[in-house]
Write a structure and sequence with these properties.
Layout lengths: L4 E6 L4 E3 L2 H8 L6 E5 L2 H17 L11 E11 L4 E9 L4 E8 L2 H4 L3 H18 L4 E6 L3 H6 L8 H13 L4 E6 L7 H13 L7
Parallel strand pairs: 4-7, 7-8
Antiparallel strand pairs: 1-2, 1-3, 4-5, 5-6
Helix pairs in contact: 4-6
């Protein structure tokens, strides 16, 4: 039987799911759920991206006097010779892109390599959303731990992941935080942009 990918654009936890059972759990008894199956993961991601863009274009994510939702793409990189990790973050606003990046060498994070950068990017995006008055932020990521540590699906057993889990829990007092997985290096524009920004912070790219 051909493999299917289930795209949940609007549901309990938007994202790409690999079984109907997992998809059903996100949309069942969820008013206004938007979902569809595809033969390839790239098609599923384009569907979710297009649905999100429709919300942006229609002003549903950025309306004065109403709740505001920020879309943020994050990625990480690592340079072994420097023992430094870095993050890239792209905030997608209705009329502009906000790009952030930076690097670090905290010993609690270095062992996690590029994952450390993606964690840092997620934290930066959340803080940016809070500081700019958003009521919700959707983090688009490509390493599943970004969501699973935050949502207590994976056990956080390293200092860096424990701190990240606590950070998200604390920030959820101020803002709604949801996550959306994209496949790495599959041509998703803002994901690729976040990756390049992370590499730039380590001197590995000159694109930005």
């Amino acid at each position: 039987m051909a493999k299917k990918y289930y795209a949940v654009a609007v549901g309990k936890t938007p994202g790409i799911y690999f079984t109907w059972e997992d998809c059903k759990a996100q949309v069942e008894q969820y008013p206004g759920a938007v979902y569809k199956s595809f033969k390839t993961i790239a098609e599923a991601e384009r569907f979710c991206d297009s649905q999100r863009q429709l919300e942006v274009d229609s002003g549903l994510t950025e309306v004065e006097g109403k709740d505001k939702c920020l879309i943020a793409y994050v990625d990480g990189s690592y340079e072994h010779s420097l023992k430094r990790y870095a993050y890239g973050c792209v905030m997608v606003l209705p009329d502009e892109l906000v790009k952030l990046n930076g690097a670090g060498d905290d010993e609690d994070y270095v062992s996690m390599r590029n994952v450390a950068g993606e964690i840092l990017g997620s934290e930066k995006a959340i803080l940016w959303a809070v500081e700019h008055g958003y009521s919700e932020v959707v983090i688009y990521y490509d390493y599943e731990g970004i969501e699973k540590w935050a949502n207590d699906i994976w056990k956080a057993n390293k200092p860096g992941t424990i701190r990240y889990k606590r950070f998200v829990a604390e920030q959820r007092k101020n803002i709604k935080i949801t996550f959306h997985k994209v496949a790495a290096h599959t041509g998703v524009t803002y994901n690729e942009m976040a990756d390049e920004l992370a590499k730039t912070a380590l001197g590995m790219s000159t694109r930005f």
